[in-house]
Amino acid sequence: MPPAANRSRAVSIELNAVLVALIDDAPQVLTLEDGMLLPSGPFEGDHPTLQTGLRAWVERHTHHPLGYVEQLYTFADRSRAGAASGLRIVSISYLGLTRERAEAGRREPGWQNWYRYFPWEDWRGGTPTVLARQVLPRLRRWIEAAADTAARRERRQRVEINFAEPTWNEDLVLQRYELLYEAGLVAEAGRRKGPADVLPGASMHYDHRRILATGIARLRAKIKYRPVVFELMPPDFTLGQLQRAVEALAGRPLHKQNFRRLIEQQGLVEETGGVSAETGGRPAKLFRFRREILLERAAAGSKLPLSRSA
Amino acid sequence: MPPAANRSRAVSIELNAVLVALIDDAPQVLTLEDGMLLPSGPFEGDHPTLQTGLRAWVERHTHHPLGYVEQLYTFADRSRAGAASGLRIVSISYLGLTRERAEAGRREPGWQNWYRYFPWEDWRGGTPTVLARQVLPRLRRWIEAAADTAARRERRQRVEINFAEPTWNEDLVLQRYELLYEAGLVAEAGRRKGPADVLPGASMHYDHRRILATGIARLRAKIKYRPVVFELMPPDFTLGQLQRAVEALAGRPLHKQNFRRLIEQQGLVEETGGVSAETGGRPAKLFRFRREILLERAAAGSKLPLSRSA
DNA sequence: TCAAAAGTGTTATCCTTACACCCATGT
DNA sequence: ACATGGGTGTAAGGATAACACTTTTGA
Fold it and tell me: What is the CATH architecture assignment of B224-296?
């Protein structure tokens, strides 16, 4: 038995980081333990704020300079520590963006394509096959398995909102994961309810996949009204590269012409004068992000053209 | 010297709540200690999640049923506990919405109009006088007091973005408060830098006013894309009441006709059949929120007509 | 010469904004 | 009668979505 009195049980603070980089036009996230864990550890030391503590900790453990950082969420679920243990773990998670556009081929260990964990979230090549072949059929079975008609109707509506093709909303990454969890279709749920009929897609330890889903959802929402994509880009880039970057994050193809116009007319970028010597086709002008925009306009967005065509 | 080892110093968790209600068309927030504190206390007991812990705690201490709840932010600044004390306080703050539309006159103690703390945020009656008379002049002095031209230019731009009339953005409540803090124009800043030239607007203990600003900013942003206003409304209401509610939260007047059309065409409300016997003029139809909308559409917004006229 | 990617121009449509006006009630 | 708030219609402007087409390189 822990000696702590009722009102002051032992507490420890854990930091979790969703570190994102773009490598070879793929959205990658830094992991440990063969992709099973997000970087995480105790909050220690003497930092004035959490944010600085996280920065120092990430840079010390991963040797990555950290660009943009934002807090995601704080969990203190009892389930995270063993149920009856007197210890309460508070886990504070962060989203961090870093520049890591390495050359093709050079693959540092630890970076994982995030669609490995959420294959149904990648619509860049059209409707993902895993959705039609696996996710939807099993969700339909889950709907049918409901206790009564009312429950069935509710399940049907929730599936409709989150997974229906015509109205697919790429921001609902977390909601979709949580629904799949509830339906017992991800490995993490099986730990409680017994072995389940599990979907393709790598799992993680603890609730790290949920934290990852939170990070992806936040980032997808954010790129629509804040120019954060540029934190993931090299200093100079072509509009094509930029488009592929946004597509990689949003998980869907964008309309080329409208994308270009939108970016340019918003004054987000300026030409460097150079052109790129790239993989084929006409050489592209190089651009750089106009950092001044952050001081010029309050809501410097980087609106996406919401059309679906490629 | 605290006996704790370097890597495991004492930590305690504190919950803070920004509890919002609409009373007499004014946005009110629940406070303690004569308006100087937000409800807050240690996280204790045996709740499975933070959210349930907060709910129980709020309901036990304030006797208020809590509707919508959302996490705001987690701070662990060293400054919150005495600097050199071995104790680290992690404060997790929440936004909670509750129905408290009491009759005019009946004023429970503890509820404070939030514009008491941020008088420059209320544009319902046109540009707030405190802005032109006090805030802007002192910010201008702050700009001039910068060390060199570069710093001066940067300050000017930041003031421009956050406080300029023509582009006033009601969502920037937190940014504005933090800028005023930095400029030494709020009492809270004075605690460190010595007595300051303080603006009108009530202050709070610790960083509670900053937490309140975070809550207001979050709520103002949220009402634009989620139908959370209804959490603050009585079951039946007129469109006029609803408009005044949104105006109270957003802190600015809205265009009547467009507001009505927007609300109705989005299918957010339905007529109850009844009419109200109110303060004068033609009796108004009563409406109720269509809860089903939450299941029908993923992004059930309650878009505001972004025009300024009354 | 052809594939591949870059880059330009133009049109239809819808949503937002704004203005003008009528309706029903209490005093 | 008139003040007050409720309620409706419609036109102008701007942003988005969609389409068609030209340019410049490497193989």
Answer: Orthogonal Bundle (1.10)
